[in-house]
Amino acid sequence: MVAAGCRPSEALALRWSEVDLEDGVISITGTVIGGAGVPCARKSSPKTKHGYRAIPISDWLVVELMAMRVDAGFEMVFPSRAGTYQWPANVGDHWRTAFKGTKWEGIARKAMRSTFATAVGHQHGAVAVKESLGHSRESTGERYYIGAARVARDVTDVTDTYGPGASVAESEG
C-alpha cells in the first residue's frame, strides 16, 4: 500500500500471478469483499472500472516481495494464517508490527493512500494520481490531494489572548 497507492482491499486481493517481479509491476484486478456473517472473498474486479491498472513498484518493494515469494504457500500475496483472503480491518496488528520503529510508525492505514497520492501529485501531477489510484477523473486528485493549501483567516489576535501571561479578563474580552 505504501509503495503502490492501492486500496487496502486491493492489496489484500493481490495474487502472485499479478506480481511481475522481473519487470517490477503489480496488476490490480480485484478487491476483497464480504460482510457481517459472509466469508471474506476475492471479487475479480476492482472497486471501479477505472481501478484496473498496472503499477510500477520500487526496487525495494520488489526485494521484499521476492523474499515473501520464497515462503509463499498460497496464491494470494497476503494470506491469512488459514490461507484465505484477509479482511482489511484485520491487518491492524500486522501493520503496527511492520512499521514499528520506522518513520511510518503510528500512521493509520487509511492515511497511506492519501499520503502516497499527495506525494505523487506534487511530484508528477494529477494525471499520475489518476493513473496510480485508479480514479476516473484528474479532478479527484486535484481536489483531494494536490489542491492549493487554503490559508485560514489570521485570528491570532484572538488566540494570543489565550497564551501564557494573558490575563483572564483579556481572554474574556
Order of SSEs, N→C? HEEEEEHHHHHHH
Helix content: 25-40%
Q: What is the strand tally?
A: 5
Architecture (CATH level 2) name: Orthogonal Bundle
What's the CATH H-level superfamily name?
Intergrase catalytic core
Global structural class: alpha+beta
Question: What characterizes the major β-sheet?
Answer: 3 strands, antiparallel
Q: How many domains make up the 3D coordinates?
A: 1
What is the typical, i.e. mean, pLDDT? 83
CATH topology: the name is hpI Integrase, Chain A
Radius of gyration using CA atoms only: 21 Å
- Shape descriptor reads globular
Please report the distance between the alpha carbons of the first and last residues.
50 Å
Sequence stretches where pLDDT stays below 50 over 5 or more residues: none
Total number of helices? 8
For the largest beta sheet, what order do the strands appear in spatially?
1-2-5
Question: Tell me, what is the CATH class?
Answer: Mainly Alpha
Structure report:
With 173 residues, this protein is of the alpha+beta class. It has a single domain, classed as Orthogonal Bundle (hpI Integrase, Chain A). 39% of the residues lie in helices and 12% in strands. The chain is built from 8 helices and 5 strands; from the N terminus they run H-E-E-E-E-E-H-H-H-H-H-H-H. The strands form 2 sheets. Strands 1-2-5 form a 3-stranded antiparallel sheet, with no helix packed on it. A two-stranded antiparallel ribbon has the order 3-4. Strand 3 (31-35) and strand 4 form a beta hairpin. The protein is globular. The mean pLDDT is 83.
